[in-house]
Amino acid sequence: MRNTIARENITATPDAAELGVDLEPGEPVDTGAEAKEFAKIIRTHALEATGGRTYAEMGRYLTASGEETNDEAEAATDEQSNPVQNGLRNLWVTATSLTTALNIAFLAERIALFSIVMGAALLLTGLGCLVLTISVLRPSSSPATA
């Protein structure tokens, strides 16, 4: 999984320190924890681009004057007579996709760690059961009484 993140060549943005994330500017993102921190940067940048508004708070289309609207009849049209989409709203779709992928990398790394710890715990439990079983099934060395 770390190879997959590393091959994307993601590096922390120059404003990473200012945003309060645990990444140094220019630092490569190659672990799940770093991916989670970079997801925070993406969300912050998306909020900056939209003036602090989220996907649900924006209109779906743009009017001829550039105002947002959800009414397709009020929307400006392109060359094919389709309503003009709100680009900032579409930016949220991209930002959400990217942050979800990065957060899944964090989750996958944590699940892998949990699996390793549980595997070790079950191995120790199995060894403990084996020791108990051997001690119970071993013939006693005390002399038989007549």
Keywords:
single chain; 146 residues; two-stranded antiparallel ribbon
Task: Please explain how this structure is put together.
The protein has 146 residues and is mainly alpha-helical. The chain has one domain (2-137). The chain has helices at 2-6, 32-49, 87-137; strands spanning 61-62, 68-69. The chain has a two-stranded antiparallel sheet. The longest helix has 51 residues, at 87-137.
How would you summarize what this structure contains?
Helices cover 51% and strands 3% of the residues. It is mainly α. The chain has a two-stranded antiparallel sheet with strand order 1-2.
- Main sheet characteristics: 2 strands, antiparallel
Question: Looking at the structure, what is the overall shape?
Answer: elongated
- Work out the strand percent: under 5%
Whole-number count of domains: 1
Overall mean confidence score, pLDDT: 91
User: Span from first to last CA?
Assistant: 68 Å
Structural classification = mainly alpha
Per DSSP, the total helix count is: 3
Find the count of extended strands (DSSP E, 2+ residues).
2
Low-confidence segments: none
Q: Can you give the helix content as a percent range?
A: 40-55%
Order of SSEs: HHEEH
Whole-angstrom Rg:
28 Å
| Strand adjacency order, main sheet | 1-2
